[in-house]
Protein backbone atom coordinates (compact mmCIF):
# COMPACT_ATOMS: atom_id res chain seq x y z
CA UNK A 1 0.00 0.00 0.00
CA UNK A 2 1.44 3.36 -1.05
CA UNK A 3 2.34 5.80 1.72
CA UNK A 4 1.51 9.42 0.98
CA UNK A 5 3.22 12.32 2.63
CA UNK A 6 1.16 14.05 5.34
CA UNK A 7 -0.03 17.57 4.82
CA UNK A 8 2.15 20.09 6.61
CA UNK A 9 -0.60 22.44 7.70
CA UNK A 10 -2.84 20.40 10.00
CA UNK A 11 -6.55 20.95 10.01
CA UNK A 12 -8.21 21.53 13.33
CA UNK A 13 -10.26 18.31 13.21
CA UNK A 14 -8.67 15.93 10.76
CA UNK A 15 -5.14 15.16 9.62
CA UNK A 16 -4.82 13.52 6.22
CA UNK A 17 -1.97 11.05 6.24
CA UNK A 18 -2.85 8.61 3.50
CA UNK A 19 -5.20 8.58 0.50
CA UNK A 20 -7.36 5.94 2.17
CA UNK A 21 -6.89 6.86 5.83
CA UNK A 22 -8.17 9.79 7.89
CA UNK A 23 -7.11 9.88 11.52
CA UNK A 24 -9.05 12.11 13.91
CA UNK A 25 -7.17 14.51 16.13
CA UNK A 26 -6.48 13.79 19.77
CA UNK A 27 -9.57 15.72 20.82
CA UNK A 28 -11.77 12.87 19.58
CA UNK A 29 -12.15 9.58 21.44
CA UNK A 30 -10.08 6.95 19.62
CA UNK A 31 -11.89 3.82 18.49
CA UNK A 32 -10.35 0.46 17.74
CA UNK A 33 -10.61 1.26 14.04
CA UNK A 34 -8.70 4.54 14.53
CA UNK A 35 -6.00 2.82 16.59
CA UNK A 36 -5.58 0.36 13.76
CA UNK A 37 -4.08 3.09 11.62
CA UNK A 38 -1.61 4.52 14.16
CA UNK A 39 1.33 2.80 12.44
CA UNK A 40 0.79 4.49 9.03
CA UNK A 41 0.58 7.78 10.92
CA UNK A 42 3.94 7.21 12.58
CA UNK A 43 5.49 6.03 9.33
CA UNK A 44 4.25 9.13 7.51
CA UNK A 45 5.68 11.45 10.16
CA UNK A 46 8.97 9.57 9.99
CA UNK A 47 8.92 9.96 6.23
CA UNK A 48 8.50 13.72 6.56
CA UNK A 49 11.46 13.82 8.93
CA UNK A 50 13.57 11.95 6.39
CA UNK A 51 12.48 14.08 3.44
CA UNK A 52 13.44 17.34 5.19
CA UNK A 53 17.02 16.04 5.22
CA UNK A 54 17.22 15.82 1.42
CA UNK A 55 19.02 18.34 -0.78
CA UNK A 56 16.99 20.91 -2.75
CA UNK A 57 17.93 19.15 -5.98
CA UNK A 58 16.59 15.82 -4.70
CA UNK A 59 13.38 17.43 -3.47
CA UNK A 60 12.70 18.86 -6.93
CA UNK A 61 13.09 15.36 -8.37
CA UNK A 62 10.82 13.84 -5.69
CA UNK A 63 7.99 16.17 -6.71
CA UNK A 64 7.44 13.85 -9.67
CA UNK A 65 6.60 10.87 -7.42
CA UNK A 66 2.95 11.80 -6.83
CA UNK A 67 0.56 14.73 -6.39
CA UNK A 68 0.78 14.30 -2.62
CA UNK A 69 4.59 14.57 -2.65
CA UNK A 70 4.46 17.60 -4.93
CA UNK A 71 1.87 19.38 -2.76
CA UNK A 72 3.83 18.69 0.42
CA UNK A 73 7.21 19.78 -0.95
CA UNK A 74 5.70 22.96 -2.39
CA UNK A 75 4.04 23.81 0.92
CA UNK A 76 5.65 26.98 2.35
CA UNK A 77 5.75 25.44 5.82
CA UNK A 78 7.74 22.49 4.49
CA UNK A 79 10.24 24.91 2.92
CA UNK A 80 10.67 26.59 6.30
CA UNK A 81 11.15 23.25 8.08
CA UNK A 82 13.70 22.14 5.47
CA UNK A 83 15.61 25.43 5.78
CA UNK A 84 15.64 25.33 9.59
CA UNK A 85 17.04 21.79 9.60
CA UNK A 86 19.69 22.68 7.02
CA UNK A 87 20.83 25.70 9.06
CA UNK A 88 20.88 23.73 12.32
CA UNK A 89 22.84 20.80 10.86
CA UNK A 90 24.98 22.96 8.50
CA UNK A 91 23.91 20.75 5.61
CA UNK A 92 23.40 21.63 1.94
CA UNK A 93 25.67 24.71 1.88
CA UNK A 94 26.06 26.54 -1.41
CA UNK A 95 29.30 28.23 -2.45
CA UNK A 96 28.92 30.34 -5.56
CA UNK A 97 31.71 32.09 -7.46
CA UNK A 98 30.31 35.12 -9.28
CA UNK A 99 32.63 36.29 -12.12
CA UNK A 100 33.93 39.85 -12.32
CA UNK A 101 33.10 40.10 -16.03
CA UNK A 102 29.56 39.68 -17.38
CA UNK A 103 28.82 36.04 -18.19
CA UNK A 104 25.78 33.85 -18.91
CA UNK A 105 26.88 31.37 -16.26
CA UNK A 106 28.09 31.06 -12.69
CA UNK A 107 30.40 28.64 -10.86
CA UNK A 108 29.43 26.38 -7.99
CA UNK A 109 31.74 24.50 -5.62
CA UNK A 110 30.74 21.08 -4.37
CA UNK A 111 32.56 20.97 -1.04
CA UNK A 112 30.94 21.88 2.25
CA UNK A 113 31.85 22.77 5.85
CA UNK A 114 34.43 19.98 6.13
CA UNK A 115 37.74 21.84 5.85
CA UNK A 116 38.53 20.22 2.49
CA UNK A 117 41.38 21.75 0.49
CA UNK A 118 40.31 20.45 -2.90
CA UNK A 119 37.11 20.13 -4.83
CA UNK A 120 35.34 20.40 -8.13
CA UNK A 121 33.87 23.51 -9.67
CA UNK A 122 30.73 23.31 -11.80
CA UNK A 123 30.06 25.83 -14.54
CA UNK A 124 26.28 26.27 -14.69
CA UNK A 125 24.26 28.25 -17.21
CA UNK A 126 21.95 30.93 -15.86
CA UNK A 127 18.20 30.21 -16.02
CA UNK A 128 17.53 33.62 -17.63
CA UNK A 129 18.75 35.41 -20.76
CA UNK A 130 19.45 38.93 -19.47
CA UNK A 131 21.15 40.44 -17.56
CA UNK A 132 24.48 38.69 -17.82
CA UNK A 133 25.80 37.96 -14.36
CA UNK A 134 28.65 39.86 -12.74
CA UNK A 135 29.61 40.38 -9.11
CA UNK A 136 28.70 44.07 -9.33
CA UNK A 137 25.02 43.09 -9.69
CA UNK A 138 24.76 41.21 -6.37
CA UNK A 139 22.42 43.20 -4.12
CA UNK A 140 22.18 40.75 -1.22
CA UNK A 141 21.45 37.14 -0.29
CA UNK A 142 19.59 35.27 2.42
CA UNK A 143 18.36 31.70 3.05
CA UNK A 144 19.64 30.44 -0.29
CA UNK A 145 18.10 33.29 -2.30
CA UNK A 146 20.26 35.80 -4.17
CA UNK A 147 19.02 39.27 -5.07
CA UNK A 148 20.43 40.76 -8.29
CA UNK A 149 20.06 44.35 -9.49
CA UNK A 150 20.89 45.43 -13.04
CA UNK A 151 19.84 49.10 -12.86
CA UNK A 152 16.43 48.52 -14.42
CA UNK A 153 14.97 45.99 -12.03
CA UNK A 154 15.70 43.13 -9.67
CA UNK A 155 15.86 39.35 -9.78
CA UNK A 156 15.27 37.00 -6.88
CA UNK A 157 17.20 33.83 -7.71
CA UNK A 158 17.43 30.44 -6.05
CA UNK A 159 20.49 28.75 -7.61
CA UNK A 160 19.79 25.46 -5.78
CA UNK A 161 16.60 24.85 -7.79
CA UNK A 162 17.24 27.15 -10.78
CA UNK A 163 14.20 29.33 -10.16
CA UNK A 164 13.94 33.10 -10.29
CA UNK A 165 11.42 35.92 -10.10
CA UNK A 166 11.72 39.31 -11.78
CA UNK A 167 10.90 42.38 -9.70
CA UNK A 168 10.54 45.84 -11.25
CA UNK A 169 12.33 48.78 -9.70
CA UNK A 170 10.40 51.01 -7.35
CA UNK A 171 8.28 53.74 -8.99
CA UNK A 172 10.59 56.55 -7.83
CA UNK A 173 13.56 54.81 -9.38
CA UNK A 174 11.75 54.48 -12.69
CA UNK A 175 11.18 58.26 -12.72
CA UNK A 176 14.83 59.16 -13.05
CA UNK A 177 16.32 58.18 -9.70
CA UNK A 178 18.85 55.37 -9.65
CA UNK A 179 18.87 52.86 -6.83
CA UNK A 180 22.05 53.21 -4.81
CA UNK A 181 22.46 50.72 -1.98
CA UNK A 182 20.10 48.47 -0.11
CA UNK A 183 19.75 44.88 0.97
CA UNK A 184 17.67 41.73 1.02
CA UNK A 185 16.43 39.63 3.94
CA UNK A 186 13.68 37.60 5.59
CA UNK A 187 10.92 38.86 7.87
CA UNK A 188 10.17 35.78 9.99
CA UNK A 189 7.34 37.51 11.89
CA UNK A 190 5.30 37.94 8.71
CA UNK A 191 6.91 35.06 6.77
CA UNK A 192 7.94 37.45 4.01
CA UNK A 193 11.10 38.21 2.04
CA UNK A 194 11.81 41.92 1.70
CA UNK A 195 14.05 43.98 -0.55
CA UNK A 196 15.23 47.38 0.69
CA UNK A 197 16.40 50.09 -1.69
CA UNK A 198 17.82 53.50 -0.70
CA UNK A 199 17.18 56.24 -3.26
CA UNK A 200 19.35 59.29 -2.76
CA UNK A 201 17.64 62.67 -2.78
CA UNK A 202 20.29 65.08 -1.54
CA UNK A 203 20.74 65.61 1.30
CA UNK A 204 18.77 62.52 2.40
CA UNK A 205 17.82 59.00 1.31
CA UNK A 206 14.32 57.77 0.60
CA UNK A 207 13.76 54.19 1.77
CA UNK A 208 11.73 51.84 -0.44
CA UNK A 209 10.73 48.31 0.59
CA UNK A 210 9.48 45.54 -1.66
CA UNK A 211 7.45 42.69 -0.13
CA UNK A 212 7.50 39.32 -1.89
CA UNK A 213 4.24 38.37 -0.16
CA UNK A 214 2.33 41.41 -1.40
CA UNK A 215 4.41 41.76 -4.58
CA UNK A 216 4.46 45.54 -4.12
CA UNK A 217 6.76 48.44 -3.20
CA UNK A 218 6.13 51.01 -0.49
CA UNK A 219 8.02 53.99 0.98
CA UNK A 220 8.91 54.14 4.66
CA UNK A 221 10.64 56.82 6.73
CA UNK A 222 13.60 58.73 5.32
CA UNK A 223 17.13 57.59 6.07
CA UNK A 224 17.49 58.70 9.70
CA UNK A 225 21.14 59.59 10.49
CA UNK A 226 21.96 63.12 9.37
CA UNK A 227 25.16 63.60 7.36
CA UNK A 228 25.87 59.86 7.19
CA UNK A 229 26.30 58.05 3.87
CA UNK A 230 26.13 54.43 2.76
CA UNK A 231 28.99 52.76 0.97
CA UNK A 232 27.87 49.11 0.65
CA UNK A 233 24.83 46.86 0.59
CA UNK A 234 23.49 45.44 3.82
CA UNK A 235 24.02 42.02 5.41
CA UNK A 236 21.19 40.05 6.96
CA UNK A 237 21.13 38.66 10.50
CA UNK A 238 18.42 37.99 13.11
CA UNK A 239 15.57 39.50 11.13
CA UNK A 240 17.40 42.75 10.33
CA UNK A 241 19.62 44.28 7.68
CA UNK A 242 22.90 45.92 8.71
CA UNK A 243 24.98 48.56 6.94
CA UNK A 244 28.29 50.25 7.74
CA UNK A 245 27.75 53.99 7.27
CA UNK A 246 30.20 56.84 7.78
CA UNK A 247 29.93 60.57 8.30
CA UNK A 248 29.92 62.65 5.12
CA UNK A 249 32.88 64.81 6.16
CA UNK A 250 34.54 62.68 8.86
CA UNK A 251 35.02 59.03 7.91
CA UNK A 252 36.35 58.25 11.40
CA UNK A 253 32.78 58.59 12.58
CA UNK A 254 31.12 55.32 11.59
CA UNK A 255 28.08 53.42 12.83
CA UNK A 256 26.32 50.16 12.03
CA UNK A 257 22.82 51.05 10.86
CA UNK A 258 20.16 48.36 11.26
CA UNK A 259 16.66 47.98 9.86
CA UNK A 260 14.29 45.50 11.51
CA UNK A 261 12.37 43.95 8.62
CA UNK A 262 9.29 43.16 10.73
CA UNK A 263 8.78 46.53 12.44
CA UNK A 264 10.61 48.44 9.66
CA UNK A 265 12.29 50.59 12.30
CA UNK A 266 15.91 51.78 12.22
CA UNK A 267 18.44 51.52 15.04
CA UNK A 268 22.23 51.72 15.25
CA UNK A 269 25.34 50.28 16.92
CA UNK A 270 28.66 52.08 17.42
CA UNK A 271 31.68 50.78 15.52
CA UNK A 272 34.35 49.65 18.05
CA UNK A 273 37.26 51.68 16.65
CA UNK A 274 39.08 51.38 19.96
CA UNK A 275 39.63 47.68 19.18
CA UNK A 276 41.41 48.58 15.90
CA UNK A 277 44.29 50.70 17.27
CA UNK A 278 46.30 50.57 14.02
CA UNK A 279 43.42 51.46 11.73
CA UNK A 280 43.77 55.25 11.81
CA UNK A 281 47.55 55.15 11.34
CA UNK A 282 47.21 52.76 8.40
CA UNK A 283 44.83 55.05 6.60
CA UNK A 284 46.50 56.55 3.54
CA UNK A 285 45.91 60.01 2.20
CA UNK A 286 43.85 58.72 -0.70
CA UNK A 287 41.88 55.96 1.05
CA UNK A 288 38.83 56.34 3.23
CA UNK A 289 38.41 54.23 6.33
CA UNK A 290 35.24 52.95 4.69
CA UNK A 291 37.47 51.20 2.14
CA UNK A 292 39.50 49.44 4.84
CA UNK A 293 36.73 47.98 6.99
CA UNK A 294 33.77 45.79 6.08
CA UNK A 295 30.83 43.95 7.60
CA UNK A 296 29.77 40.29 7.19
CA UNK A 297 27.96 37.55 9.10
CA UNK A 298 30.11 34.70 10.42
CA UNK A 299 28.73 31.66 12.21
CA UNK A 300 25.56 33.51 13.17
CA UNK A 301 27.43 36.55 14.52
CA UNK A 302 27.86 40.07 13.18
CA UNK A 303 31.51 40.44 12.14
CA UNK A 304 33.62 43.54 11.37
CA UNK A 305 36.92 42.91 9.62
CA UNK A 306 39.81 44.82 8.10
CA UNK A 307 39.94 44.27 4.36
CA UNK A 308 43.68 44.79 4.09
CA UNK A 309 46.79 45.63 6.12
CA UNK A 310 47.32 43.45 9.22
CA UNK A 311 43.91 41.87 8.96
CA UNK A 312 41.80 41.60 12.08
CA UNK A 313 38.18 40.72 12.75
CA UNK A 314 35.74 41.17 15.63
CA UNK A 315 32.46 39.40 16.26
CA UNK A 316 29.52 40.63 18.32
CA UNK A 317 29.02 37.71 20.71
CA UNK A 318 25.76 39.10 22.13
CA UNK A 319 23.65 40.68 19.43
CA UNK A 320 22.97 44.35 20.04
CA UNK A 321 25.36 44.64 22.98
CA UNK A 322 28.23 46.99 22.07
CA UNK A 323 30.38 45.69 24.93
CA UNK A 324 30.30 42.14 23.55
CA UNK A 325 32.64 42.74 20.58
CA UNK A 326 35.34 40.01 20.77
CA UNK A 327 38.45 39.32 18.71
CA UNK A 328 37.74 36.66 16.09
CA UNK A 329 41.14 36.47 14.38
CA UNK A 330 44.24 38.56 13.81
CA UNK A 331 47.04 38.24 11.25
CA UNK A 332 50.56 39.49 11.90
CA UNK A 333 51.47 39.49 8.23
CA UNK A 334 50.30 42.05 5.71
CA UNK A 335 47.35 40.88 3.64
CA UNK A 336 45.25 42.46 0.93
CA UNK A 337 41.53 42.05 0.27
CA UNK A 338 40.95 39.24 2.77
CA UNK A 339 37.27 38.34 3.11
CA UNK A 340 36.02 35.74 5.65
CA UNK A 341 33.34 33.51 4.11
CA UNK A 342 32.28 30.76 6.50
CA UNK A 343 33.29 28.61 9.46
CA UNK A 344 34.20 24.95 9.13
CA UNK A 345 31.91 22.29 10.60
CA UNK A 346 34.12 22.06 13.71
CA UNK A 347 34.15 25.84 14.13
CA UNK A 348 37.97 25.96 14.32
CA UNK A 349 38.72 27.11 10.76
CA UNK A 350 37.59 29.97 8.53
CA UNK A 351 37.32 29.89 4.75
CA UNK A 352 38.74 33.07 3.21
CA UNK A 353 38.56 34.67 -0.19
CA UNK A 354 41.96 36.22 -0.99
CA UNK A 355 42.33 39.07 -3.47
CA UNK A 356 39.12 37.96 -5.28
CA UNK A 357 41.11 35.15 -6.91
CA UNK A 358 41.91 32.43 -4.32
CA UNK A 359 40.35 30.51 -1.44
CA UNK A 360 42.12 29.32 1.71
CA UNK A 361 41.31 27.84 5.13
CA UNK A 362 42.73 29.60 8.18
CA UNK A 363 43.16 27.70 11.46
CA UNK A 364 41.96 29.89 14.32
CA UNK A 365 43.98 27.94 16.90
CA UNK A 366 47.46 27.68 15.40
CA UNK A 367 47.31 30.43 12.77
CA UNK A 368 48.22 28.19 9.82
CA UNK A 369 46.69 28.43 6.37
CA UNK A 370 45.74 25.76 3.83
CA UNK A 371 45.15 26.89 0.25
CA UNK A 372 42.12 25.46 -1.52
CA UNK A 373 43.16 24.04 -4.88
CA UNK A 374 40.19 23.92 -7.20
CA UNK A 375 40.65 23.94 -10.93
CA UNK A 376 38.32 25.64 -13.37
CA UNK A 377 37.53 28.69 -11.24
CA UNK A 378 37.20 32.13 -12.88
CA UNK A 379 40.28 34.33 -12.59
CA UNK A 380 38.52 37.11 -10.64
CA UNK A 381 35.35 36.46 -8.67
CA UNK A 382 33.21 37.29 -5.67
CA UNK A 383 32.12 34.46 -3.38
CA UNK A 384 28.64 33.88 -1.98
CA UNK A 385 28.14 31.32 0.77
CA UNK A 386 24.68 30.42 1.95
CA UNK A 387 22.48 27.41 2.64
CA UNK A 388 20.52 25.55 -0.02
CA UNK A 389 16.76 26.02 0.16
CA UNK A 390 13.61 25.36 -1.85
CA UNK A 391 12.13 28.83 -1.49
CA UNK A 392 10.62 30.15 -4.76
CA UNK A 393 9.58 26.58 -5.63
CA UNK A 394 6.04 27.65 -6.47
CA UNK A 395 4.74 28.76 -9.83
CA UNK A 396 7.68 30.98 -10.75
CA UNK A 397 9.69 31.05 -13.96
CA UNK A 398 12.21 28.36 -14.73
CA UNK A 399 13.82 28.64 -18.14
CA UNK A 400 16.44 25.91 -18.12
CA UNK A 401 17.27 22.80 -16.14
CA UNK A 402 21.04 22.71 -15.56
CA UNK A 403 21.42 20.61 -12.43
From TrEMBL:
Signal peptide location: none
- Any one Pfam family match given in the protein's UniProt record, by short name: F-box
What highest taxon heads this organism's lineage?
Answer: Eukaryota
- UniProt organism field: Prunus avium
Gene3D superfamilies listed in its UniProt record: 1.20.1280.50
SMART domains with a match to the protein in the record: FBOX
Q: Which SUPFAM superfamilies match?
A: F-box domain
Matching entries from InterPro entries are given as:
F-box-assoc_dom_typ1 (IPR006527), F-box-assoc_interact_dom (IPR017451), F-box-like_dom_sf (IPR036047), F-box_dom (IPR001810), SCF_F-box_component (IPR050796)
Q: What is this protein called?
A: F-box protein CPR30-like
Taking every annotated instance into account, which residue ranges of this chain make up the domain F-box?
A: 42-82
**PANTHER family recorded:** BNACNNG10540D PROTEIN, F-BOX PROTEIN CPR30-LIKE
